[in-house]
Design a protein that fits this description.
With 311 residues, this protein is mainly β. It has two helices and 19 strands.
């Protein structure tokens, strides 16, 4: 029954992170695989419960020596984009079968995962602790605006209609104010059908509000798409910032990897293929802006580095 309740909560209140699963890590004695992650409600009765969620990860933990069938004694910590560390507790651990479980961490609802650390100090044959890095948040950018997609905050159905709530950010790269409202955003399903963002859902939960984003300003908000067919799967998030220009991000969780859409016509990263990939979202945006500057023949310096959760 506990497992069934967990599955139902995944279906109703889940956030599918924008990254390529599965993720793998090992220390030579123990292998760990992260199959996916989602955010669940924190039903604690706490007055601030709506500001927090339970970040759950579906993982497997196995020994390299397959003949050793002893249960692995492990503890888990999660590090976010601002290097804050959260510990897993037994009450947020669901064993599915030997070697496979779902672990949870109580975190602020806007948390972005940086890494998962597996501590094997209590296992006599476990070896040293090791960490599994998570990919940075995916973004699309040009000289005018940067769009960042964090995932689906909530998904639920009623009367054969589905509602999705997405978590996004916008950064105004321009030198003038950027007007924003719900009409700028749309979501395409696997058949190419386009759904427009709405002001609020049937329960009155508000989405993005009309605003003027100042130069270099950042806005993080929720987008609500409702009603949708229960058979529609979100595939592409589109932000139209003018009558003739838009940015798109592939958000298809079943595809495994999110990518920019459409792809660049010209390879402008070829000269930098051997460089180390940015380890934070801020670094990723900085690199994107540097590439844009190269296209215009004017490479500029970066700004102060920020933690990923700050955006």
């Amino acid at each position: 029954m506990r497992y069934l309740a967990l599955v139902l909560s995944l279906m109703l209140f889940s956030v599918f992170l924008a990254s390529g699963y599965p993720l793998h890590g090992s220390n030579g004695q123990i292998n760990c695989t992260v199959f996916g992650s989602f955010k669940d409600r924190w039903d604690s009765g706490n007055a601030n419960a709506d500001r927090y969620s339970v970040l759950r990860m579906d993982i497997s933990l196995t020994r390299v020596n397959a003949s050793d069938a002893r249960p692995i004694q492990a503890a888990y910590t999660m590090t976010d984009g601002n290097d804050r560390v959260y510990s897993n507790t037994p009450e947020y651990t669901e064993d599915l079968k030997l070697g496979r479980c779902i672990i949870g961490f109580v975190v602020p609802i806007e948390t972005i995962v940086k890494s998962l650390t597996v501590n094997l100090g209590k296992d006599p044959a476990g070896g040293e602790q090791f960490s599994i890095p998570f990919p940075p948040v995916y973004n699309a950018s040009n000289e005018n605006v940067t769009l960042l997609y964090y995932g689906i905050l909530r998904s639920w159905t009623a009367s054969n209609k589905k509602t999705l709530e997405l978590d996004v950010s916008l950064i105004n790269n321009d030198t003038k104010n950027l007007p924003i409202d719900k009409s700028n955003f749309s979501l395409m399903d696997q058949w190419g059908w386009r759904y427009g963002s709405v002001e609020k859902d049937i329960n009155g939960r508000k989405g993005i509000a009309a605003a003027e984003l100042k130069p270099n300003g950042t806005l993080r908000s929720h987008l609500i798409f409702s009603p949708m067919s229960i058979l529609s799967r979100p595939v592409e998030l589109v932000y139209r910032y003018s009558n003739s220009s838009d940015l798109s991000i592939n958000v298809d969780s079943e595809e495994g990897l999110c990518s920019l859409a459409p792809e660049e016509e010209e390879c402008i990263d070829c000269a930098a293929t051997e460089e180390e990939a940015p380890s934070t979202l801020a670094g990723s945006i900085k690199a994107t802006k540097a590439r844009l500057a190269k296209v215009k023949g004017n490479v500029t310096g970066g700004s102060e580095k920020k933690g990923r959760d700050d955006l």
